[in-house]
Amino acid sequence: MSRSFLATLALAFAVGLGWGLWYLWHEPPPAAVPPPPVVVQTQPVGNGQPIPPQPVAPSPEPPAPPVNPQADPALVALTFAERFGTYTTDLPYENYQSVRGLTTSSYQANLEAAAASALPVPVEVYRSVTVRALATEVVEQAAEVATVRVRVQREDRLARDGASVTTYPTLAVHLQEAVGSWYVEGAVWLTKQTGG
After folding, report:
1. Please, which residues have CB within 8 angstroms of residue 74's CB and are 6 or more apart in sequence?
2. Which residue from 62, 108, 65, 52 is spatially nearest to 84, judged by alpha carbons?
């Protein structure tokens, strides 16, 4: 064999080996997998012709109507009783401010006047009252007025680390309706029953 033939053969072998290695290291990207075919079964109608499938778009949910939290006089009375009855001497008369928005403007003005005319609370005296509503009873409801009794659990604490006294009073809440919302126009504590 001649030298040129062996050189050509070696060159061809080297090129083939190089191409083979390049192919192994540089695999072509995987082919895209087509989605599976959609099979639609149709039912023949009276004339034997199938009904063509109709696309069904999901119907959008209608937006929920806005909820008016003051549309229920019992719920307004319950919320009012918890906020109005809960207070501490660290923030005197803050409970009167916390019911703003639940009360008529005239009743809110009465509460603010009572807070302004009250004697200041001595710094060395501490008292906290926590009220939790237990039950409501609508005793009267007409077109624009309602009276709701709210039975509460009232925990009175006379010292920061002292024992507490629990009672179960009832608050009568008088409400007035205006444009679909109920507002407190007065409230009176009816009973104070000692708890166990």
Report:
1. 136, 138, 148
2. 108
E-strand ranges in 86-161 read: 87-88, 128-141, 145-157
In this predicted model, what pLDDT tens digit does every residue of 21-39 receive, in sequence order? 666 666 555 666 676 666 5
pLDDT tens column, 100-126:
999 999 999 999 998 888 877 776 778
Which residue from 133, 132, 134, 130 is spatially nearest to 157, judged by alpha carbons? 130
7's CB contacts (< 8 A; 6+ apart) are none
112 domain-assigned: yes
Domain assignment of residue 91, yes or no:
yes
Is residue 143 one of the residues assigned to a domain? yes
Tally the domains of the chain: 1
Flag whether 34 is in a domain.
no
Show the domain range for 151: 73-191
Q: What are the tokens at 49?
A: 């012709």
For the CA atoms of the chain, what is the radius of gyration?
A: 40
Amino acid (1-letter code) at residue 10: A
| Domain at 77, CATH number | 3.10.450.230
Structure tokens, 52:
């063509």
How far is residue 28 CA from its own chain's centroid?
53
Amino acid at 79: T
Closest by Cα among 188, 93, 94, 107 to 149: 188
d(CA 92, CA 94): 5
